[in-house]
């Protein structure tokens, strides 16, 4: 299997504060990888640096074997990378307009089909498509963000804590979507999460602790290791 994403020795952070220290990880095509880490471990910083929302201090990011470290987020999105975070849904646009934004670079006819496909998956959004996104509940707004990220049927989806603030029902819906997109379109996922429920669908797990990767392996291997207790409870 070839790598869709490879991050090599990436250091990154904010002015005057380094958060990530030489992080390396890779995700194969069609694989669901879960990045576990406690609050403040650097998960968001890692996803943002991968997409290019934050410019890394050093290290490299490869997509499909191409060095894209310096590419802007838009360029990466065009190459089939999607990014989901709790932000980004535009409250003053309708649900339909928000959804179409996720496929802004698709051809018109293609976009139409893909919008229809997403409405099949999210009948609630279809029903409310003319309403402003700002009128949705927090959970529905996140599902719109999810639909928008997935509409282009991306090769790789970077998801930042999809379960945060969601009811168990919505969490299950996210998990089903991940499974479905993996199966239907061969999408790979890198999902930053604190919710261990996502381990149920993880082919591969990374643990991020204090800006460093402290575990790489399968769920079974994770269960044998003490990486989680160290990351979450500071047991060393
Ligand atoms: P959480 O689940 O709390 O979002 P996380 O693992 O995603 O945690 P990050 O959000 O990447 O962690 O934060 C890592 C560190 O970087 C934290 O110490 C945080 O305070 C700091 N940080 C995050 N965003 C900024 C910013 N814009 N400017 C300065 N420091 C930041």
UniProtKB/TrEMBL annotation:
Name the protein family.
Belongs to the ABC transporter superfamily.
Q: Which controlled-vocabulary keywords does the entry list?
A: Amino-acid transport, ATP-binding, Nucleotide-binding, Transport
The protein's GO terms of the molecular function aspect are:
ATP binding; ATP hydrolysis activity; branched-chain amino acid transmembrane transporter activity
**Name of the protein described by the UniProt record:** ABC transporter domain-containing protein
Question: Gene3D superfamilies recorded for this chain?
Answer: P-loop containing nucleotide triphosphate hydrolases
The record's CDD domains line, in alphabetical order, gives: ABC_TM1139_LivF_branched
Q: Which domain of life is it from?
A: Bacteria
This protein's record includes keyword Membrane: no
Which SMART domains does the UniProt entry name for this protein? AAA (SM00382)
Q: Which residues form the ABC transporter domain?
A: 5-235
> Record keywords: Nucleotide-binding included?
yes
According to its UniProt entry, one GO biological process term is: L-amino acid transport
InterPro entries, per the entry: AAA+_ATPase, ABC_transporter-like_ATP-bd, ABC_transporter-like_CS, BCAA_Transport_ATP-bd_LivF, P-loop_NTPase
Task: List the source organism.
Answer: Alicyclobacillus ferrooxydans
